[in-house]
Design a protein that fits this description.
Length: 276
């Protein structure tokens, strides 16, 4: 009986220790916003100022050091963020997001993710089937054509598209602008919008695309907008609104700003550096 009681006590202590370890693990999620907000400097001169700066930036400030090197926690956080960025590049856009937005999909001349990463030129070109599909399903010669593309961060589309696209469509249509049928491009690049513009005869084309993940955010989206775009045009003719994500330019506010930009482009008939 004593042996059984001893075993029971040992088992209970083991479970309590495991629960405690789980709690510690949850608390030390070094990639979380809460963990990154902590000041790792041993003796900051002005703790309040440092805390204020960390609240308004995702930059790695106040992390301290171990001699001439990064301390262990900062190094592990960097590695965790780098792993997340790599995972994000290989992700696919959630089909459920596209279904909720009512977007049909087309694909560039890229066949898979490996080819997408090694052949950016193919990501700028639509397949013949894709051109045929948008000609069949989209409004011809719209004043503004908007579409989304995965780019290098499908997470950006999953996280931001449902918040920004309604702002754009509502803002533009309420202004009396003839808006084309939005859709999604798989394995798309920024210059994909040039072929879209030529195929549909759009005055203004806007692509909402996932940007290359960084170590501070893996879900950044950008909007590249061009007036009278054509294949091979100079990059200087594009207007870009970048850093669209929850810790950067809020998607709702970015959407309202993009509507204003597009209205201006239609008025002056120019985009990018051509506006100046």
């Amino acid at each position: 009986m004593a042996v059984e009681q001893r075993d029971a006590v040992i088992a209970e202590r083991h479970m309590q220790t495991a629960d405690t370890d789980d709690e510690k693990f949850d608390m030390l999620d070094i990639a979380s916003h809460k963990a990154k907000a902590e000041i790792l400097l041993a003796h900051p001169v002005n703790p309040e100022a440092m805390a204020c700066m960390k609240r308004v930036t995702t930059a790695r400030i106040g992390v301290g050091r171990a001699g001439p090197r990064l301390n262990t926690r900062t190094l592990l956080t960097l590695r965790a963020d780098h792993a997340r960025a790599r995972d994000t590049v290989m992700m696919e856009v959630d089909q459920a997001v596209l279904d909720r937005m009512g977007l049909f999909s087309i694909q560039t001349q890229v066949h898979n993710k490996a080819e997408y990463l090694t052949r950016p030129d193919l990501g700028r070109r639509l397949s013949q089937e894709a051109v045929r599909t948008i000609n069949e399903r989209c409004t011809p010669k719209p004043e503004v054509q908007i579409f989304a593309a995965d780019g290098l961060s499908s997470l950006a589309i999953n996280s931001n598209l449902e918040r920004i696209l309604p702002i754009l469509t509502d803002g533009l249509t309420s202004s009396g602008i003839n808006l084309g049928t939005p859709f999604f491009v798989k394995y798309g690049r920024v210059a994909t919008e040039d072929m879209v513009s030529e195929a549909l005869g759009a005055q203004v084309v806007c692509v909402l695309i996932g940007e290359r993940p960084g170590l501070s955010s893996a879900e950044g989206m950008s909007a590249y907008i061009a007036y009278n775009a054509w294949v091979g045009m100079p990059e200087s003719r594009r207007t870009v609104v970048s850093n669209i994500h929850k810790d950067g330019f809020n998607a709702v506010e970015a959407g309202a700003y993009i509507v204003e930009l597009i209205q201006k482009m239609l008025k002056i008939k120019a985009s990018g550096l051509d506006q100046y």
